[in-house]
Amino acid sequence: MKSIVCMSGVELLMEYLEGALAPDVREAIEAHVAGCPRCEAFIASYRDTPRIVRDATRMEMPADLEASLLTALRKARDRHE
Ligand SMILES: [Zn+2]
């Protein structure tokens, strides 16, 4: 199969880290990463990021929270005008 090209595989690396890849793709990535310091560093930094932070950044803001935040921001702005 086609070998993993460095950095074009970032999406694949994400999925690899989430354990979402087919075994043959995962093997190809592992083979590449074993000989690639850049991808190895990427994986290391990703693994150092706590899952809760990744989940938080992925999460969308609830509509009511967004609305109250906008209201608060408008009030703060109005006070300065
Ligand atoms: Zn690489």
Features:
single chain, 81 residues, elongated, binds zinc ion
Structure commentary:
The protein has helices at 10-17, 23-34, 37-48, 51-58, 63-80. It is mainly α and 81 residues long. Zinc ion (ZN) binds next to helix 3.
Rounded to an integer in angstroms, the radius of gyration calculated over CA atoms is: 20 Å
How many β-strand runs? 0
H/E series, N to C? HHHHH
Unreliable spans = none
Compounds present? zinc ion
Layout: helices, strands, pairs:
Elements: H1 10-17, H2 23-34, H3 37-48, H4 51-58, H5 63-80
Characterize this entry briefly:
The chain has 81 residues and is mainly alpha-helical. Helix content is 72%, strand content 0%. The site of zinc ion (ZN) has 5 residues, from helix 3.
